[in-house]
Amino acid sequence: MALFLIVALVNLLIARSSGYNPMGRHDTIHFVISYPLIEEAVFRGLMLPILSNSTTSVLPLTIVGLPVKYTVLITAFLFAICHLQYYKLSRMSIRFMMFAFSGGIFFGIIADQTKSILLPIILHIEFNALSVYFSRRKIS
């Protein structure tokens, strides 16, 4: 639970500079609700458990006292790569990938420890909603 609260606060801080800015109501709804649900179901709900069943190797690294598994890093890396799909490789796309990679690590640790994707979904929706809020606030 401590990691969940820490990530929720970090989301609040880094969403201010994320640069994500979906256009229109349709894109915003997908960005805030649909994409987090689908991405968490695929990466933390399907891929992470499948990979975790094949290995239990843990890195010599802990975050808030929780072990980081290789499978969490693999799914976080794949999650980051998927965030490149609509962009050419650029400074902004690298930033999006870094946000996705770091989020993927934390969401993966939480999903791995709780054996549930509920908290990662909530955190992912929170980050995306805050990103939209801050980007719209800068525009007005």
Task: Give a topology summary.
Layout: H1 2-14, H2 24-54, E1 58-63, E2 66-69, H3 70-82, H4 91-114, H5 118-139
Antiparallel strand pairs: 1-2
Helix pairs in contact: 1-5, 2-3, 2-4, 2-5, 3-4, 4-5
Distance between the termini: 36 Å
The assigned structural class equals: mainly alpha
Biggest sheet strand order reads 1-2
Helix content: over 70%
Main sheet characteristics: 2 strands, antiparallel
What value does the Rg take, in angstroms? Answer: 15 Å
- Write down the overall mean pLDDT: 88
Helical element count? 5
Q: Name the beta content range.
A: 5-15%
Q: Give the tally of β-strands.
A: 2
Catalogue the unreliable spans.
Answer: none
Order of helices and strands: HHEEHHH
Instruction: Tell me, briefly, the overall form.
Output: globular
Brief characterization of the structure:
The protein has helices at 2-14, 24-54, 70-82, 91-114, 118-139, and strands spanning 58-63, 66-69.
Task: Describe the protein's architecture and organization.
The mean pLDDT is 88. The chain has a two-stranded antiparallel ribbon with strand order 1-2. The protein is mainly alpha-helical and 140 residues long. Helix content is 74%, strand content 7%.
